[in-house]
Design goal:
Blueprint: H1 2-52, H2 56-60, E1 65-71, H3 80-84, E2 88-93, E3 96-97, E4 101-102, H4 107-123, E5 128-133, H5 136-143, H6 146-162, E6 167-170, H7 180-196, E7 202-207, H8 222-225, E8 231-234, H9 265-276, E9 282-287, E10 290-293, E11 296-299, E12 307-309, E13 318-321, H10 324-329, E14 338-340, E15 345-350, E16 355-359, H11 362-374, E17 379-383, H12 401-404
Parallel strand pairs: 1-2, 1-17, 2-5, 5-6, 6-7, 7-8, 8-9, 9-17
Antiparallel strand pairs: 3-4, 10-13, 10-16, 11-12, 14-15, 15-16
Helix pairs in contact: 6-7
GO molecular function, one term: chitin binding
Transmembrane segments: 28-49
Protein name: GH18 domain-containing protein
């Protein structure tokens, strides 16, 4: 009986093993399937991050500033890839009221700002969100009154606190020489009230270009003001535009022809750097608009980019497009373009129609980034990122890796007289 029972037990165990084989195979197949699904999902995520955040790591930890201004008017375009390229985003709006306070002028501006801030804070941890306060006539009236200056400083700090905003840019275009003292007093008071809140609020000032009559920064006590701001955005642009008959780049790096030899970014930055010495606090502008002159024929001596537009009825016919999409819809093509080596700028000239167009492209922007590196400047500010709304997203094509790799030092690389 013992001999007969042993085989029976063995057969029973073998039968159980056979029954368990399909279950084990099913579990193994399920496990392999889950692993494959996870692998595919990780591959998709990697592809998305690699393509969507092409230069994110470079700019998130960029050692120089890439400041993007976002206008409250015009295009509402604000793609996530815009944020990828920036260290600061600045909402530009005419906040200032004559009574010495700041507020949104309409619901649309409030909506745009909240949307901008929420996206930046939610998805781009570390992004600095600021506001820019403009207003020409209001500034002058407020600065003339000590009580209004104090009221304005309180209003700004309260706004930053209530709206969880990182800082403010003061964009008074432009104070007169008679405003110099009062403007400086206001900047000092605002800085002191920021410090009392025990928060690291950012304070910047946008200052006028040098060399243009009527734009000279006479209304800024620059040597004193630089001590109370985190940085200055230099308005190194508007050297040429269709308000005048002479064509030219909005912000040529170098080279002008008589009587505008000093109408360049380099001349303006030479002036500021030699005067202030703190090069790491100075940012140059990258204008994103497109400027068109019509009835252009004559080439002026010295460069292909400088030409004469014939007047019609005593006026220049031209347009400044603050949206690249609008320009494209009007029939403007930004490629192929010509390159002017002397000014380091791009342009297009249609001799048949007499249309002349200047604008920034990948090459001209990268020349400006190289200039910031060479001159130990603090960074660039883009005016404005929502103008980059055309079929070709210009800011997406710029590689900031070399630009962002090193921190600026206060070493003057200009010839100071």
């Amino acid at each position: 009986m013992t001999d007969n029972s042993t085989p029976i037990a063995t057969d029973s165990l073998l039968e159980n093993d056979r029954r368990n084989v399909p279950g084990k195979r099913s579990t193994l197949i399920t496990f392999i399937g889950v692993v494959l699904v996870l692998f595919v999902l990780l591959a998709i995520a990697f592809y998305f991050v690699h393509t969507h955040f092409k230069y994110t790591m470079n700019n998130r930890y960029c050692k120089k500033r890439v400041i993007g201004f976002y206008e409250d008017e015009g295009s509402s375009e604000m793609r996530h890839t815009h944020f990828d390229k920036l260290t600061h985003i600045v909402f530009s709006h005419k906040f200032l009221i004559e009574n010495g306070t700041i507020a949104f002028k309409n619901k649309d501006a409030r909506f745009r700002f909240d949307n901008l801030k929420d996206i930046a804070k939610l998805y781009w941890n570390g992004m600095k969100v600021m506001i820019s306060i403009g207003g020409d006539m209001q500034f002058s009236a407020v600065m003339a009154s000590q009580s209004k200056r104090s009221k304005l400083a309180d209003s700004i700090v309260t706004f930053l606190d209530e709206h969880k905003t990182d800082g403010v840019d003061l964009f008074w275009k432009w104070p007169a020489a008679s405003d110099k003292t009062s403007y400086l007093l206001f900047v000092k008071e605002l800085r002191q009230k920021m410090l009392k809140r025990d928060k690291k609020y950012i304070l910047s000032v946008t200052s006028a270009p040098a060399g243009i009559p009527g734009y000279w920064p006479d209304g800024f006590d620059l040597e004193e003001m630089i001590n109370h701001v985190d940085f200055m955005n230099i308005f190194s642009m508007d050297f040429y535009g269709p308000w005048g008959w002479q064509t030219g780049p909005a912000a040529p790096l170098y080279h002008g022809i008589a009587p505008r030899e000093n109408f360049t970014v380099d001349y303006t930055m030479n002036y500021y750097t030699c005067k202030l010495k703190e090069t790491s606090k100075l940012n140059i502008v990258i204008p994103m608009d497109a400027r068109i002159w019509r009835n252009v024929k004559t080439t002026l001596p010295g460069s292909e980019v400088f030409r004469r537009a014939d007047l019609v009825g005593g006026k220049v016919e031209g347009t400044i497009y603050t949206s690249r999409l609008v320009a494209e819809n009007a029939g403007i093509n930004f490629a192929p373009s010509n390159w002017d080596e002397q000014t380091k700028s791009s342009y297009i000239f249609d001799q048949k129609s007499g249309i002349f167009l200047t604008f920034e492209n990948k090459k001209s922007i990268e020349e400006k980034l190289n200039y910031v590196n060479e001159k130990n400047l603090g960074g660039v500010w883009i005016r404005s990122v929502n103008m980059d709304d055309g079929s070709v997203h210009l800011l997406d094509d710029i590689n900031y890796q070399e630009y962002c790799s090193s921190r600026s030092t206060d070493t003057v690389n200009y010839q100071c007289v």
